[in-house]
Amino acid sequence: MKNIQKEEEDGRYNREQELFQGFASKKNSKIHEEQLVAAKQQYEITKDIESYKRSTRRKVYCSLHEHEKLNNDTDSD
Q1: Alpha-carbon distance 31 to 54, whole Å?
Q2: Which of 2, 27, 39, 51 is 20 to 30 Å apart from 69, CA to CA?
Q3: For residue 53, what are the CA distances in angstroms to 43, 63, 64?
Q4: Rg (the chain; Cα; Å)
Q5: Is the pTM of this model over 0.70?
Q6: b or e along 34-64 (b: 16 or more beta carbons within 10 Å of the residue's beta carbon)?
Q7: What is the DSSP letter of 77?
Q8: How far apart are CA 36 and CA 52, in angstroms?
Q9: How far is CA 77 from CA 68, 72, 73, in A?
Q10: Residue-wise pLDDT tens for the chain (77 aa)?
Q11: CA torsion sign, 6 to 8 to 10 to 13?
């Protein structure tokens, strides 16, 4: 009789451990998912910043080029 009771307790313990590990696994996957979302957001922010820098450089270059062109045109007159 004690063996049957021991087996039932062991079975219950094993099921509880499986459930607990499942919760830990879900928690880890949730943390992993949050890290992926954060990394993606950081990538998007970095990409936007780099795009803005390139755009600003182009605008500055074009402005300088236009300014030089105007100066050269007035100098030649």
Answers
A1: 34
A2: 51
A3: 15, 15, 16
A4: 33
A5: no
A6: eeeeeeeeeeeeeeeeeeeeeeeeeeeeeee
A7: -
A8: 24
A9: 14, 9, 7
A10: 677 777 778 878 777 777 666 666 777 788 888 999 999 999 999 999 999 999 999 999 888 888 888 888 766 55
A11: negative
Dump the DSSP string for 2-45: HHHHHHHHHHHHHHHHHHHHHHHHHHHHHHHHHHHHHHHHHHHH
DSSP three-state, residue 1: coil
Position 19, amino acid: L
Q: Within 10 A of 3 (CB to CB), how many other CB atoms are there?
A: 7
